[in-house]
Give the backbone structure.
Amino acid sequence: MSYHAPTQLEDALRIAAAGGGKVVAGGTDVYPSMVQGQQPDAFLDITRIDGLRGITPVDDGLRIGAATTWTDVIRADLPPAFDALKQAAREVGSVQIQNAATVTGNLCNASPAADGVPPLLILDAQVELASAARGVRQVPLCDFITGVRQTVRAEDELVTALHIPHPPAGSASAFEKLGSRRYLVISITMTAALVVCDGDGVIRQAQVAVGACSAVAQRLHLLEDDLIGQRATDIRVNPAHLGALSPISDVRGSAAFREDIVTTQCLRAIRRAACHE
């Protein structure tokens, strides 16, 4: 088995183009996701590459480097629109895992229960990918994950960053997660909401996303549209609002249970965001 740990992006892209093997950042999902008896011929560790870690302002928003950990997110000085992302960061595994696991690794793993996806969906995140042959491209997060453990990343590409546009003025967000215990647990359901209210407490903009209730986390556009012009205390969530979801029944909960919980989570997340809680 080969283990590559380049310090320059150009070298990493060259290795990836030559079939560099399994990409590793924090590595917290590598072995749990392996099929017993099967392992890659090589690993490509990107954590030593200059410039791939950190949260930095750019002209059109924020850039989150591909090796940025969840602890980095928790400690960053970010506006209230990022509260849902920070709250999700505290729910990822344990503190030890948060110190190693990366935000982009959570996306590339493409689990339906990936805690980071709903908070990043409501922030309109873009995924930056680079290859030696084709250069750099950006893909909306809503298009990046295509199914369970599936993304649009090509074999010779590396995710190098996430780009978050400037959030709407006055926006705040909140995250709700249900699991069988407090830490080290896979989500049964989770919801993130970003809300902008006017001076009278009326919702003027809303973005809501739900994870672990479909193969890919989904924005609830019908609910978002119906929230406009309402006060947070008056909102209602009905089955039609959840039409984009396709929850399954498994050992962690039935489809009906998930749908019932998501209804409550949406109400809580929207009201907490509206109140900046």
User: Anything to note?
Assistant: Residues 255-274 form the longest helix (20 residues). The chain has a mean pLDDT of 95. The chain is about 25% helix and 25% strand.
